């Protein structure tokens, strides 16, 4: 039992911006290590065009080989009907559709406007539900846009309301895609989201690009979050800030939650070991701090 | 005017554990850069034995040459009467005395027991007050000890009460010396401290060793902190965790505060520039993230 779900997004968002391509074998081992550590929801694959995102190639093969255990749920990122068809054929347990909150980011990242991403997400949720699998819609750049700057929280809550009314996904995720947010924004967006999408569980996605990611995650939890995204080792980064760190790290988040008396059901040391393994596979230093600093108290 | 005081502790705690020794010239430039950025309290020097802490040598020469401006207050760390005499001769504006919360850390770090550090701090405060300068007592390892693990919050508040009763310093600082704390602990200690030392302003000192430092700082502010320690560039580290990061970084803290609508009176970009300068002087990468990721919105 856990007080909050940690969703391991390393296999998807963690790898997506890394230069070194992992093999299918390596991706399967990475996912297996997360599951062995006790993670029960894994964003394992992305059903996007592998020519656009080479790191996400081989999604079907990965899904054929991941350990299928009771209580473990695999999420596939899906942008449209074509992606959903691949997801259904791969027997993912959940799909995560993406709405982009600003026109400029949407056109550059998805090649279409905000309204198109909303319409596509609504369709994905409807069709996924018809196929019997769980659905999330993630609102990207909800805290700020690298191209157009500030994003109005009222605009985000309008998107939330539209998604709740037209799609009623099983979960709404708010994403600080470029790592600019602060806890005051989290509190505000959590309150607005609860008002506009009452009863829909909130999932949050933070990057630690400017050292606010962990404060944001803990604030989201206090504000009623049911799930938090994190990435083993904190790999990832952002194509708009080449030297910046990536997702908040699963092991550092579990440390903070554990010391706060929040149960995750996850073994921190196994995450640390998985991060070291992944660092070797990517030939990169591990951005997470727990592996360097050590657990506290040391004997744990 | 500012909503919270940022105390630049880089010249003291930031440098203290760095291998590369800075010259007096470099230390004076470092302090001048912090003041130019708008910092109004600087922990500039430590009056400890320079044979024990070589990085802190030359405190008197540093204090002779720092810019003396209206509204800028220089703090000297002081462990005993000998240190206080040096501090008074150097015309510091404030002294910071240190109490260590656990016996083992106290004996290894100060060479005496907890009760001795309390008695010494009480004496330093009394004598400094008699000399007309402001006083802080910092309680080190208030969130956990690298040798003996957990530290009971009730024990910390007993120390707080004793300091309030016997010394009544102008400020009490609670220090997470080894970077193990979480926001729930901050809230608990802030409440206990306000109860046991009513009316004495609270200052907090966090390290980001396990990625909880910024969450702790923001929580301290919400819990009534009047001052937060931070170090330009986030240099420092911990002798007990050689690969760990140091103090929370001034620029990253100012970013979080600024985006939260909290005024500090400090120009973030000048801190970023100072951190780059310091990184060159120490021949080290800057641990802070803001210089890598860039401000947001970009045009600010």
From TrEMBL, chains A, B:
Residues 4-272 form the Pyruvate carboxyltransferase domain. One of its GO terms (molecular function) is hydroxymethylglutaryl-CoA lyase activity. One of its GO terms (biological process) is ketone body biosynthetic process. PROSITE patterns: PYR_CT. InterPro entries: Aldolase_TIM, HMGL, PYR_CT. Pfam families: HMGL-like. Keywords: Lyase, Metal-binding. Belongs to the HMG-CoA lyase family. NCBIfam families: PRK05692.1. This is Hydroxymethylglutaryl-CoA lyase.
